[in-house]
Amino acid sequence: MGITLSGISKKFDAFTALGNIDLEVRPGEFLALLGPSGSGKTTLLRIIAGLEFADSGTVAFDGQDVSHLPVADRQVGFVFQQYALFKHMTVADNVAFGLNVKKRRDRPSRQEIQARVAELLDLVQLGALGGRYPAQLSGGQRQRVALARALAVGPRILLLDEPFGALDAKVRKDLRRWLRELHDRMGLTSIFVTHDQEEALELADRVVVMDHGRIEQIAEPHDVYAQPASAFVYDFVGESNRLPVTIAGGAVRFGDRELQVGSDGLADGPATLFFRPHEAVIVPDGPALPAIVSLARPKHGVTRIEAQVDGLPHPLEIDVAGANPPKVGDSIAVAPTRSRLFPHPMAD
Amino acid sequence: MVQVNGGTVALGGQQIDRSIAPRAARRRRSVMPGFGLTFGFSLFYLCLIVLIPLSAVFVKTAGMGLDRFFDVAFSERVVASYRLSFGAAFVAAGVNAIFGLLIAWVLVRYDFPGKRVVSAMVDLPFALPTAVAGIALTALYADTGWVGQYIEPLGVKVAYTPLGVVVALIFIGLPFVVRSVEPVLDDLGADVEEAAAALGASRLKTFRRVILPAIAPALLTGFALAFARGIGEYGSVIFIAGNMPFQSEIAPLMIVTQLEQYDYQGATAIAAVMLIASFLLLLLINLIQIWSRRRMEG
Asked: How far apart are CA A201 and CA A205, in angstroms?
């Protein structure tokens, strides 16, 4: 089921949560809404669900306008951040809730409901725990109960608000893989909200990066990382170093030092230069940034170095391969091998 | 990394026999010291304040002999007063459970100007001297009062009737329900209601199947507190009740009547009956509560 959002805006008093959002979600897609807190990603998800209503703009499912339908009539499965399980009901009753509250003429028979619940509990690998109460389950198990409950009513769209936020790292990784498989198997269209870029890049078909109620970029995970559309995306997705530079006549300067990087066709004036820690080398001398090593520690098979540069508030982070990395106190020169320039210097 | 497995303490993978482990492993230590002292004092204090006066009621009663006990404590007039006290307290607590829940709901779920004032108003019955409340209510509901002059022609007589007793007890018991339910409702969170809605439940079904079961123990607590308070309430009721024998006399009034005749044993006899009845009712409510809470916490 495809979802089309056009011109969605939402204000909370004076605060603009969403400003004129257009988004096309393809049928069967697994989409991530990625952004820092306050970026509007959860509000957008809630508007798609019908838990919140936009001030203007439309939400359409498969071309059909659902903007004014309440959540109960939209046939979406929603998994809440804290799961929102019904504490006074057993796991099986939680899962059966959506079926039990149907109007009598639409409601399956008791046997059918029981069979459906058993099937769903098997699907989420909780077959034996139907008689327990939510308080007796671990975080990961609760999460899966919430999923089974959302899937019970046969939704066409699955919406997940920070689905892994409250879990510890190991459980999170397992659940992530499992959720991806589940999505593929059930043929759903899924959207999940996260502030964890790693999660978004690993799990999603496409990532929507949001900031301040606007969409900064919509792209496949690889492109979000390799071809960030804005300074914000570059900074938010992956690790980065940033340098305030000036462009003059096609040359890029940091202070009075010219750097060997292309000006990306930007006009003269102030700009910000970004490069990833692994996209820089230490050179003996030449057009590079002089720095003093303040920290060196092993990381993922390389050595992560922090180096202080005069006039920069933060140290540069550089990954150095090889057996003889520089030591703390060494004077080095750093040259970016691959970098991006963005015109507006970012506020710190 | 310290792991305690059975009798051994593992420190960073090294096994240390318990005999040489620090003393802490042998003697259970609490981070909150002084349990013995504080618990001892609590027990002593409760005995002094609660248990001794209550047992005095029974000791005093025991001296009067069974025949006289039944004569006094179960005379027709006194039984009628029990009926009124327990009945009116029950009805008032029931009314408070419904409307107290509504007020708690409004206070928890919505933000509106003057919310603090409304919240403070809920506590007024706690703060107001009960006699003042009683006189105010009587003045309101008397046949010339602000409210009384309009409802009396309709055939509803509040002042000096059992209905007046109920009205006074509703006033007195309201804060108990509101303050018991409020934190639980707050804790329930809006997301649970949203989850029910997302699963297709109507507002009514959400309330009946999700909200009510979750707050039932707290609502019952509030009901029990309001009920218990209502049974013993004297000051606010005595003015509005009119105190007609067999009709609008409350049980605490019967105790006072006995006291005025210097019949202390008679007074304690009635008190003992009320005490046992209240105790049994509260026990019942507590049992229901334990049962419903166990279902939720497993």
From this structure: 8
pLDDT tens per residue across span A87-101: 889 999 999 999 999
Instruction: Identify whether the C-beta of residue B214 lies closer than 8 Å to the C-beta of residue A85.
Output: no
pLDDT tens digits, B144-162: 888 888 888 888 888 888 8
**CB proximity A102 to B under 8 Å:** yes
Mark yes or no for CB contact B191/A71 under 8 Å.
no
State the amino acid at position A235 in one-letter form.
Answer: D
Domain with CATH 3.40.50.300 in chain A: 3-234
CATH fold for the domain made of A3-234: Rossmann fold (3.40.50)
- With beta carbons under 8 A apart, name residues in chain B contacting A150: 198-199
Residue ranges of chain A assigned to CATH 2.40.50.140: 244-342
What stretches of B152-263 show up as alpha helix (H) in DSSP? 162-188, 190-198, 203-206, 212-232, 235-241, 251-260
* Rounded Cα distance, A191 and A197, in Å: 15
Instruction: Indicate whether this complex's ipTM tops 0.95.
Output: no
Nearest chain B residue to A146 by CA: give it: B195
Q: Give pTM, 2 decimals.
A: 0.76
Residue B278: its H or E element: helix B264-297
What's the mean pLDDT in A47-70? 92
B161 Ramachandran zone, left/alpha/beta (phi>0; psi -120 to 50): beta
Q: What is the CATH number of domain B66-297?
A: 1.10.3720.10
- Please, which residues 162-201 of chain B have a Cβ atom closer than 8 Å to chain A? 189, 191-192, 194-201
Which chain A residues are closer than 8 Å to B209 by Cβ?
A: 97, 100-101
C-alpha span between A137 and A173 (Å, rounded): 19
Architecture of domain A244-342: Beta Barrel (2.40)
How many beta-carbon pairs below 8 A join chains A and B?
77
Task: Please indicate whether, in this complex, the C-beta atoms of B199 and A97 are within 8 angstroms of each other.
Answer: yes
Both tokens of B180, joined, read 């018991």
Domain parsing of chain B, residue ranges: 66-297
**Residue B193 Cα, gap to closest chain A Cα (Å):** 8
Q: What is the pLDDT of residue B178?
A: 95
Contact A305, A315 (CB under 8 A): no
Checking if the pLDDT of B94 tops 90, the result is yes
Which positions in chain A touch B210 (Cβ < 8 Å)? 86
The type of residue at A102 is K
Q: Name the residue with tokens 């230069």.
A: A273
Distance CA A141, CA A163 (A): 12
Q: Rounded CA gap, B236 and B145, in Å?
A: 17
Q: What is the CA A112 to chain-centroid distance, rounded?
A: 38
pLDDT of residue A345: 52
B200/A153 CB distance under 8 A: yes
CB atoms closer than 10 angstroms to residue A47? 24
Tell me the pLDDT tens digit for each residue of B164-190.
999 999 999 999 999 999 999 988 888
From the list B191, B199, B202, which residue is nearest A153 (CB)? B199
CB contact under 8 A, A82 and B197: no
* pLDDT higher than threshold 80 for residue B295: no
Rounded to the nearest angstrom, the minimum Cα separation between A144 and chain B is 15
